[in-house]
Specification:
Layout: H1 2-18, H2 22-32, H3 41-58, H4 68-71, H5 73-76, H6 81-93, H7 97-109, H8 116-133, H9 136-147, H10 152-157, H11 159-171, H12 175-187, H13 195-211, H14 215-229, H15 235-238, H16 241-250, H17 254-270, H18 274-287, H19 293-302, H20 310-322
Length: 329
């Protein structure tokens, strides 16, 4: 049946997008186009939100005003759970955290009307959205709610759950426990599939090691994440380049740090976003020479606005302090 084929291809395109295989995802959706005249409304909305997810990963998601009649409630409440989840996930990746929060809430508000799998996905993706936004208190609460319904074995093997549990340990100051969860998950999986999840595990491992002062190990983990995510032009997806710059600077590898900073700058200018702007300013301050260091540091700090991530602001203070005189920060 044409509709079944189109629907299956749309879902596979979503999985390809999650794995950062954007060319394959776009090709699948292109092949759906001749079938759309015979496709159901449900298949069409999955195809539409799949395109939005691909655009978000690629860093080119249209503004909210151009999505579903400006994200009108009347439009959203008529959408299926999987379509809403794809849309909300796209909004989160696109740094539209408040909009994503609103769409996720629509799924969770349906309660038992929704299948358990969609409620599970909404709880996980909600926690991920709060982590990305820097809303740590809400993220910790969301992770606790989501994680409480699974066994220990599932938490250690499933990458999305392992990342959430490890991040919670990290946020609460338990770096050894965070690394243990990440390492166990990496030991149980192959990098031949789900590249995105594997890269995120390495990136989180590098972040924890960096903040623990284990710089060589941090650089190795962040380089592993970078090797997987190198093809991504949207720096706000994996979010490892700022940590890699800091690791290189603290190791005295200034030329390497400047190379990564130049790449971050090029990617940010091609795919501009708030996270990229904040972390690029921090990276430029870390690699600045004596003649520009003071002004670069001042700009890195003054760029933050009240609505920005307090975590990234704290990371900027800490990074500048770690490579210079803390009094300058």
């Amino acid at each position: 049946e044409v509709d079944a084929v189109a629907g299956l291809m749309a879902m596979v395109a979503c999985f390809r997008a999650e794995a950062w295989e954007l060319d394959q995802a776009k090709d699948l959706l292109h092949r759906i186009e001749p079938l759309e005249a015979s496709a159901s409304a449900h298949t069409l909305e999955i195809a539409t939100t799949a395109r939005e997810l691909i655009a978000a990963v690629d860093g080119v998601l249209p503004p909210d005003t151009e999505l579903h009649d400006g994200l009108a409630t009347s439009e959203l409440v008529a959408m299926s759970d999987p379509a809403l989840l794809l849309l909300a996930h796209a909004l989160s990746i696109g740094e539209r955290y408040r909009s994503a929060r609103r769409v996720f809430a629509l799924v969770l508000a349906r309660g038992q009307e929704s299948a358990a799998v969609w409620n599970e996905a909404a709880r996980y993706l909600t926690s991920e959205n709060e982590v990305r936004s820097g809303n740590f208190r809400q993220a910790l609460r969301a992770i606790d709610v989501w994680e409480s319904g699974s066994s220990v074995a599932e938490r250690l093997r499933e990458p999305s759950r392992a990342i959430a549990v490890a991040w919670r340990h990290f946020a609460e100051g338990r770096s050894a426990e965070a690394l243990d969860v990440v390492d166990r998950c990496l030991a149980h999986r192959s990098t031949s599939r789900l590249w995105g999840a594997t890269a995120k595990l390495h990136a989180l491992r590098g972040k924890v090691l960096l903040l623990d002062g284990r710089l060589d190990e941090a650089a190795t983990a962040l380089e592993a994440a970078d090797a997987i995510g190198r093809s991504l032009r949207n720096p706000a997806v994996l979010r490892h380049l700022g940590d890699l710059v800091e690791a290189y600077v603290r190791l005295g590898r200034i030329d390497d740090a400047r190379t990564i900073t130049a790449r971050l700058a090029a990617d940010h200018h091609a795919r501009p976003g708030r996270w990229g702007a904040l972390v690029l300013a921090r990276s430029l301050a870390l690699v600045a020479d004596d003649t520009t260091r003071e002004s670069a540091r001042r700009r890195a700090l003054e760029l933050f606005q009240p609505h920005d991530s307090q975590y990234e602001r704290a990371r900027t203070f800490a990074a500048l302090a770690a490579v210079g005189n803390p009094a300058e920060c």
